[in-house]
Amino acid sequence: MRTVLCYGDSNTYGQTTANKPDDRYPPDIRWPGVLRKLLGPNWLVIEEGLSGRTTVSDDPIEGPEKNGRTYLRPCIMSHKPLDLIIIMLGTNDLKIRFNKTPSEIAMGVGALISDIKSMPAGVEGRTPEILVVSPPPTASDLKEWASVFEGAYEKSQAFAHHFERIANAHEAHFFDSAIVVKSSDEDGFHLDAQAHSDLGYAIAEEVASIGWIE
């Protein structure tokens, strides 16, 4: 059995785009759940999504637990050995309080890749495969979140370019989610149920295309 860790923010957690019970999509609707079904019984898919999670920054309003770098190492130690780690982070770094450029956000993802590679977290001490997924750009209209994400639309348009550059530099796999999904018009930055399905299918294809060593 192979094991994949899906490490992300609210769009991995499954935060809904509109008010629904628990504000979270059910397990079979979230993209890691779709991935689990498609990969089949020979894969263990671990969901590690947290709403508000950043790449490498403590959040002065929501708390230090939102720092994706702080939690990554204990998370990996809890679940190893891992064959694959999928990272989809960066949207929350767009919040104006962090004042980051797209390049700096991508560098945060690069720091996470470096942390993973510094640990013997794979099977038999190998380094797990790493798949960097650039989040889709935000919508131009971010509704009541517009002041929190001021300037996010323009910055998020550059995500794929900078994320791919960082992934290539660290010899990690890369996928641009904007090829298959877009942020919901309901709130401007979350995925709707159909987008979760489409993303799950696309990532399953990316996983299958990795040259797995038996």
Query: What share of the residues lie within helices?
Result: 25-40%
Strand content: 5-15%
What's the rounded overall pLDDT mean? 95
Distance between the termini: 11 Å
Label the structural class. Answer: alpha/beta
| Count of helix runs | 7
- Gyration radius (Cα, Å) is 16 Å
Strand order of the biggest β-sheet: 2-1-3-4-5
Full CATH superfamily name: SGNH hydrolase
pLDDT < 50 runs, ≥5 residues: none
Tell me the total number of β-strands. Answer: 5
Could you tell me the CATH topology label: Rossmann fold
Number of domains: 1
Shape: globular
N-to-C SSE series? EHHEHEHEHHEH
CATH class: Alpha Beta
Please name the CATH architecture: 3-Layer(aba) Sandwich
Task: Report the biggest beta sheet as strand number plus sense, adding barrel if it closes.
Answer: 5 strands, parallel
Task: Briefly characterize the structure.
The chain is an alpha/beta fold and 214 residues long.
Question: Would you mind describing this structure in some detail?
Answer:
With 214 residues, the protein is of the alpha/beta class. The protein has a single domain, classed as SGNH hydrolase (Rossmann fold, 3-Layer(aba) Sandwich), CATH 3.40.50.1110. It has seven helices and five strands. It has helices at 10-13, 31-39, 68-79, 102-117, 152-156, 159-169, 193-209; strands at residues 2-8, 43-49, 84-88, 129-134, 173-176. A five-stranded parallel β-sheet has the order 2-1-3-4-5, sandwiched between helices. Strand 3, helix 4 and strand 4 (129-134) form a beta-alpha-beta unit. It is globular. The mean pLDDT is 95.
